[in-house]
Design a protein that fits this description.
- This protein is an alpha/beta fold.
- It has helices spanning 3-16, 35-44, 62-68, 80-87, 91-102, 145-148, 153-156, 167-179, 200-203, 232-236, 239-247; strands spanning 22-24, 49-53, 71-75, 108-115, 134-139, 187-190, 206-207, 212-214, 225-226, 266-267.
- The strands form 2 sheets. Strands 1-2-3-4-5-6-10 form a 7-stranded mixed sheet, covered by helices on one side. Strands 7-8-9 form a 3-stranded antiparallel sheet, with no helix packed on it.
């Protein structure tokens, strides 16, 4: 998507859904060459801004992030040794340096982690010395082989073979340990939530870097239409969107935390 493409989207959004919160993520949104132009235009248009980033390139736009963003979510996989083992040597230090630059700004700084087999036993020291205001922990997304067989081959390709039979019991043990801890900032765990229909198709639209749109940010083997070819109204109120809403939950929907309510989220 070019800067001109995003300008057109923002112009439409001002009329169709004024005041909507814009969440920038990727991939890595700070890599986008027109990041500054797009975010400044969005802020001037009255849209609250949030971003999900790996935190390694905060210095590129620290002034902007500090001043016009409402929330900044930084992905962290564990304490320094664990994070660097997963992301690469020296990455944790870059994340910490970037967060230090954002302290005292307008944005709430939020550490976001996925509880996975590689890091389940490393969270007792949250938030790992990072200067954040809050921590959100997510349950790992995985599909069993039986669930994969309910999907089309293209939809199942990403998830087939990632089932981890021991993970649920390991996760329960970790959560019980976390309940016993004391932390300097609020910590919450967002589990998978199997009950009820997903609310995202009624309140959320994901626009990819190629302009293709979906309702879900994790399962993107379909498109509702491309913003280069259709208006936001046509996409959000179109036949494909309504069919998705009516068809309801797919097997992977039981492995999602977006359906959580305040009552289902665990706080420590």
């Amino acid at each position: 998507m070019s800067f001109s493409d995003w300008t057109g989207v923002l112009k439409q959004l001002r009329d169709y859904a004024p005041g909507s919160t814009l969440v920038l993520w990727g991939g890595e949104p700070l890599l986008y060459p027109h990041f500054r132009e797009v975010t400044e235009l969005a802020a001037q248009s009255g849209f609250p801004l949030e971003i999900i980033t790996n935190g390694t390139m905060i210095a590129r736009h620290a002034d902007l992030l500090k001043s016009i963003f409402k929330r900044i979510f930084v992905s962290v996989d564990g304490p320094e040794k664990v994070h660097d083992a997963i992301r690469g040597p020296g990455v944790f230090a870059k994340v910490k340096e970037g967060l230090e630059q954002l302290k005292g700004g307008n944005a709430e700084l939020i550490m976001m982690s996925v509880l996975a087999p590689e890091n389940l036993d490393t969270f007792e020291t949250l938030p790992f010395g990072l200067p954040v205001d809050r921590v959100i922990l997510h349950e790992m997304i995985y599909l069993t082989d039986a669930e994969c067989r309910q999907l089309t081959s293209s939809a199942a390709e990403k998830w087939h073979g990632n089932d981890c039979p021991d993970y649920p019991s390991q996760l329960r043990t970790t959560i019980e340990k976390l309940r016993q801890g004391k932390y300097p900032v609020p910590v919450e765990f967002q589990p998978h939530f199997e009950g009820g229909n997903c609310r995202e198709p009624y309140r959320h639209l994901h626009i990819g870097s190629d302009g293709e749109t979906t309702f879900c940010t994790d399962f993107m083997n379909y498109t509702l239409g491309n913003v280069r070819d259709h208006t936001l109204r046509e996409i959000f109120e179109g036949e494909k969107a309504e069919r998705f809403r009516q068809n309801g939950n797919k097997p992977f929907c039981s492995h999602c935390s977006w359906k959580n309510t305040r009552e289902s989220i665990v706080t420590f």
